[in-house]
Amino acid sequence: MMKLVPEKTALLVIDVQWDYWKLKLPQVPPASLLFKLKTLIHFCRSRKVKVVYIRHISHSSRSIFFQEGTEGTEIMEEIKPLPEETVITKHTPGAFFNTNLHEMLREKGIENLILTGMRTEHCCDTTTREAHALGYRNYFISDCTATFDIVEKNGDVIPREEIQKMTQSILDNGFATVISSEALMELF
Q: Which of 19, 49, 92, 113 is most exposed, with the fewest beta carbons within 10 Å of its own?
């Protein structure tokens, strides 16, 4: 696998916001997510990789998540952005749609994206596919993305581990290189 050039690489931290850790959900992200993500963020900062935070603010009155002005939209304290780091606000699952993310990354000469965050099959997947369509080389970090079980209308439960595995398999088939955070760090 080719080595990554820090100046041409950016880490995207997608929707790691307080609402996912509140009691609004029957489950919370895996305990290891914040630890692994914090480790990767510190590594990227030490290598001068641009760290970009993506924050979701819902404009839907039906949404119980990420309502503007609530603490639920805040990025988790354990991985808070530094004052000089960029925070992009989005209103849809994809971080590129109706934001200035693409322009900002191109202006900085970014060619490679490291994708992390919440939820694997929703905002992380959508952002990865958008990035692929825009010509970025994507690295989807298997242990720094997470999701929840899905309860279908008939009551059947699809376990989060199955969703994680399926989404990563699909993305690894043309949209991104799926890789662990440890393996990614070896590419620098």
A: 92
Residue 115, classified by CB atoms within 10 Å of its CB into exposed (0-12), middle (13-18) or buried (19+), is: buried
Q: Tokens 């043309």, residue? A: 174
Residue 156 CA to residue 162 CA, distance in Å, equals 13
**Residue 69 φ/ψ region, left for φ over 0, alpha for ψ in the -120 to 50 degree band, beta for the rest:** left
Interatomic CA distance for residues 117 and 153, integer angstroms = 26
